[in-house]
Amino acid sequence: MTLAFIVPGLDEAASEKAIAILQNRLSQEQEAALVLKHAHWNVTGPNFIAVHEMLDPQVEVVLAQADETAERIATLGGTPDGRADAIVRNRTWKAFDVEGRAGTEEYLKALIEYYDAFIADDRKAVAELDELDFVSSNIIQDHVQELEKFQWFMRSHLA
Questions:
Q1: Measured in Å, how far apart are the chain's first and last C-alpha atoms?
Q2: What are the pLDDT digits (tens) for 36-51?
Q3: Which of 31, 58, 69, 80 is most buried when burial is the number of CB atoms within 10 A of its CB?
Q4: How many whole angstroms separate alpha carbon 121 and alpha carbon 135?
């Protein structure tokens, strides 16, 4: 990887490692926004409108998180890759497995499981970034806080 520049206080090796971690997070954030929108369009059943409307703000926030992650990659001198093939190439997580129309309970259970992996991966990234770049770590920590809140909404809806 060729860096355009290095931010003050970081060396090239730390920057490259941080960028690689952030690129993985960016790919999962982009996929998560697509997964959430897929659920939003295809959820059915008596609680349709509540779940449909609960997912829209989550899509917006996750897209904003992806933008923030991409901007951090660029700030570190890297080139964020937001292409669709980057999502597939960088996938280290299990793909979302609900296709087509399904009931609110089925979608919410699948989304909770998806969030389990998403949050765990973000937490792992936070731990790795803590050693490399505390600013990048703080960004992902903020993302985790929002994701945990969204997952709580889903769990509470099912309870």
A1: 47
A2: 999 999 999 989 999 9
A3: 69
A4: 18
